[in-house]
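User: I'm designing a mutation panel for Cation-dependent mannose-6-phosphate receptor and want to avoid disrupting the core. Could you give me a predicted structure to guide residue selection? Please restate the sequence first so the numbering is unambiguous.

Assistant: Good idea. Sequence first, for numbering, then the predicted C-alpha cells:
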Amino acid sequence: MLGKQINTVKVLIIIWIFSSAEFTGISQETCDKIDDCSCKKSNGKIINLREIDGGSKAAFKNIPTVRSKQYTFDWNPCTSFSENSECLNMLMCQKNLHSTDENNPCAQKTSKFKVNKDGTTTIIYQSFTDSKDYKRYVTKFRCLFGKLCDSITLKCDESQYPGNTGSGVTERYEPKNSAYTMVFTSRCACDNGCDSPSESGSSKLSIGSILLIVFFALLLFYLIAGVLIKRYKMGVESVPEVIPNYEFWAGIPSLVKDGVIFTCQGVRSGCSSLYQRSSKSGYDKI
C-alpha cells in the first residue's frame, strides 16, 4: 500500500514538473548574445541580422501600429541611427503621424536573446526612459488573456529576405510607460540563415588581411607562371635558374647588406657629430 502511494506521488511530481515547464515557457534552448543583433544558440548555430542592417539609417521604416493609425516605427537590427534631437542613437524610434516633430526613442541596446518553445527567437531590448520621464519597453509583457507577448520575435522563413514585419507593432499603454512587440519573419532569423559574425561580433576581414591575401596570391601566380615559361618556352631546366628573374632575387641579399651598412654608417656619423657638439663647454679657452 505504501509503495503504491510513493509511486503515485512520483507520478504527480513528474506531471507537475512538465506542466510547470509548459505554462511558464521554460525552454532548454538558449541563445547567448554576441552583439546587438546576433546570438549563438546552445546547439552551435548562430542567428545574425547584420546582413540586413541599414547602417546609419533604419533598415525598416514606417512600420505600422496594429491597433492605432497614429504612430509608425523605424527599426534597425544592429546599428544605432538618429532621426532628430528627440531620437538619437536608437535601434527603434516611434513617429507620430499627426506631428512631424515628434519622434520618440524606444530602444537603444539589446538586453538579451530568448529562445521560445515554438523555436522562434526573441530580441529583448533594455527599457528606455526619455527626458520627460516616460519609459518605453520593447520587451516581454502580458497582453490579452494573460498571454505573454514578446518584443521583436524572429521567425524563420527561408523565402523572406530581407524580411517582413507582418501586421506591424503591437502597443500596450500604461501611465508613464508603453510597451511594444513585433514579429519579424526573415531568412536571417533561421539558424545560420545569414552570414555569421565571429564571437567578437566582426564578420569581415580587415584591409590589411585582404592586401596580404592578394599579395601572396599574385606572388604564387608569378612564380608558377615564370617557372612554366622558362621551362617550356626558354628551355631552362637547371635550378635555381628556372626561377623567374633569378639574377634579381639572387642579388637581393647583397643589396640588403649594402643598405644596412650605409644606414649604420649614416647613423654613426650623425651620432658622432651630435656627441661632439654636446660635449663642448660653451666657453672660449683662455
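For picking mutation sites, this is relevant: The longest strand covers residues 177-186. Residues 20-27, 143-148, 199-203, 281-286 have pLDDT under 50 and may be disordered.
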